[in-house]
Q: What sequence folds into this?
């Protein structure tokens, strides 16, 4: 089978309308998509993705709410 060569101009296709693109801001004025928490490398090795980190933290929150605080009074 022969490959059919199509003639292509050096122009973009109509579906790639660059006029609709917005300029991405750099620096402090840039739009943020939520808070970012950085994990230490040894902790990041244990969790394969953000969902597993959130699941572990939610479990820890449930456990901490279920147990009354361990308060020792000294006299």
A:
């Amino acid at each position: 089978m022969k490959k059919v060569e199509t003639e292509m101009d050096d122009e973009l296709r109509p579906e790639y309308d660059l006029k609709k693109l917005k300029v991405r801001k750099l620096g402090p004025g840039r739009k943020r998509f939520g808070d970012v928490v950085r994990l230490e490398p040894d902790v990041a090795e244990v969790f394969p993705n953000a969902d597993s980190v959130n699941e572990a933290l939610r479990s820890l929150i449930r456990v901490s709410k279920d147990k009354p605080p361990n308060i020792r009074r000294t006299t």
Remarks:
- The mean pLDDT is 77.
- The chain has two helices and no strands.
- The first helix runs from residue 41 to 44.
- The CA atoms of residues 4 and 43 lie 53 Å apart.
